[in-house]
Amino acid sequence: MSATLRFDNIGKVFPGVRALDGVSFDVNAGEVHGLMGENGAGKSTLLKILGGEYQPDSGRVLIDDQEVHFASAAASIGAGIAVIHQELQYVPDLTVSENLLLGALPNRLGWVNKRAAKKHVAERLTAMGVDLDPNAKLRKLSIAQRQMVEICKALLRNARVIALDEPTSSLSHRETEVLFKLVRDLKADKRALIYISHRMDEIYELCDACTIFRDGRKIASHLALADVPRETLVQEMVGREISDIYNYRERPLGDVRFSVKNVLGDALSAPVSFEVKRGEIVGFFGLVGAGRSELMHLVYGADKKKDGEIQLDGKPIKVRSTGEAIRHGIVLCPEDRKEEGIVAMATVAENINISCRRHYLRGGLFLDRKKEAQTADRFIQLLKIKTPSRKQRIRFLSGGNQQKAILSRWLAEPDLKVVILDEPTRGIDVGAKHEIYNVIYQLAERGCAIVMISSELPEVLGVSDRIVVMRQGRIAGELPRGKASEQSVLSLALPQAETVAQAA
């Protein structure tokens, strides 16, 4: 039986970089085929070729043994293909219904029938087990909810071939379970699925087969994934053995460096207080909507707090804006790199230097371009950012390499005291995670106070000295490293009713 989807010797070149080089593999009906590889390995580029955003420079794409050419995304959709990209693509000022049916809205004599659209979407969402308000505007939804909208958009098209690029990177545990059920239902319905993820547990739970990419080439295809050890996949991805991804190392802790006292804001249900010592890494965990990111926006000056005090090295400070926070040595690496992190049309060098360039002024008027270039090159090398040059526009980099550039921006600040990292490894491969954890440890060893928000519980447990758990807009409790386990952390994070139900 022929494959539903076949990539035959696909090649793609961008200025200064070969993104894909002779990639070939098959995806069969009723199969979930995993794609794994480091950031910049070519996985997302391949999906953009499948989705009609790029055209291959060499090779062929075949559907049911027939060669196809997609000159646009519309042509790909028309051929029964749905691609859910890692970087979300939605219209923020339209509703859930309008986003889901964009291009296929029910109409009467040219006028959109909003009632019919809402009814159709509500019925389909209910059938899929997805809890979304059809009338809500995308701008008002959380990152996780927007991600679910993108996933549902593809499923509503009844596509034969569905590709998902890091679909759970922003989802809660409950939303991830809903997605997994949808994927299994699609597999049972004989759809052909491609599933990209850096999370090894997901690949083994969902995928029948797996193809490994490295530097734009196919390294291996495993047609019986269950028989392949995890260590083999990691080594194929990064080209070296990584025995302990977290590589936690103890360090002496100093006095309290960063103290938050009774801070209150719109997204919090009670005043919040916490403190971080010099050299300490405090992990914040909670379900989506627990208030972690909103709390950090308040202490960073990105949102206005109603009450509370912030202290640095035992002295009260004013943080009424992000600029004031940065001048105090407090920086934040945001969760949503596309909306809040990168300047898409600027170069990699400009994105790295955008904050610290105030230190490179000569006479207060002229920028020292040589220093900026040296700073950019240093961090490109340190964090192994895959880019043809510092002059490359950052929007052409993979999501993980964009994340590294944002992290570099704050590492370039000369007088860091507090570093807040909101989902710092979201969408990042195992090798790059290992490198970023080492950078975090180095910052802590310099005496920085580190706050790390993560939705990946193993990551929080693996990196943190202490874990603070938030639930429904307040702190539910905290645990030292030695007493923290998945069960103890989840028991604090879950609402009481869910905890009782799980115990039963």
UniProtKB/TrEMBL annotation:
Q: Which organism is it from?
A: Caballeronia hypogeia
Superkingdom, natural source: Bacteria
UniProt xrefs under InterPro entries: AAA+_ATPase, ABC_carbohydrate_import_ATPase, ABC_transporter-like_ATP-bd, ABC_transporter-like_CS, P-loop_NTPase
Q: Which Pfam families match?
A: ABC_tran (PF00005)
Tell me the ranges covered by the ABC transporter domain, including all copies: 5-240, 251-497
Q: Which GO CC annotations does the UniProt entry carry? A: plasma membrane
Question: Keywords assigned by UniProt?
Answer: ATP-binding, Cell inner membrane, Cell membrane, Membrane, Nucleotide-binding, Repeat, Sugar transport, Translocase, Transport
MF term (GO), any:
ATP binding
What SMART domains does the annotation carry? AAA (SM00382)
Q: What is this protein called?
A: L-arabinose transporter ATP-binding protein
Localization recorded for this chain is: Cell inner membrane; Cell membrane
Q: Which residues form a coiled coil?
A: none
Membrane topology, as annotated: Peripheral membrane protein
Identify the CDD domains for this entry.
ABC_Carb_Monos_I, ABC_Carb_Monos_II
Q: What is its main location?
A: membrane
The record's listing under PANTHER family reads: ARABINOSE IMPORT ATP-BINDING PROTEIN ARAG, CARBOHYDRATE TRANSPORT ATP-BINDING PROTEIN MG119-RELATED
Q: Which GO terms describe its biological process?
A: monosaccharide transmembrane transport
